[in-house]
Please model this.
Amino acid sequence: METERLRLSPIGPHCADELYRLHQDPGIARWYGDWTRAEAEARAAEIGRSWHRDGVGKWLAYHRKSGELVGRDGLSYQDVSGARRLEIGWAVREAHWGNGYATEIGLAGLTRARELRVTEVVAFTEVHNVRSRAVMERLGFTYRHDFPHRGEPFALYAISQSD
Model:
């Protein structure tokens, strides 16, 4: 899949090194923790399985002109507030913050959700992650409520889509 500035490549086991490198970025590690190479390998394998099992998964986002790794994004099914829901998420390397990449890749994820005829997509982040919350609002998500996730308070947003 391509956007105006990005090429989105599905993550699978072959992407473990790139996923590991991405999560070494200070701006991403701040929110997702320090991943080991083994964790990146396990996560890449799980994302690959989700593409086959669910028809959705995460993409690595590369700049179309330079080929530089910008971030990752995509869709996955998550247990959120006691229900299995389609979640969209993104992570952009700190050097690229403020350039609209999270919004651009978020729109690509919502397009994929519409293709799958999914009527609701959720997004969530730590309650104090104002940058991510602003992206959610730019994409048209509405704040629903806070909920506990990984032992921390997270803010849940949702968007309803119709044909």
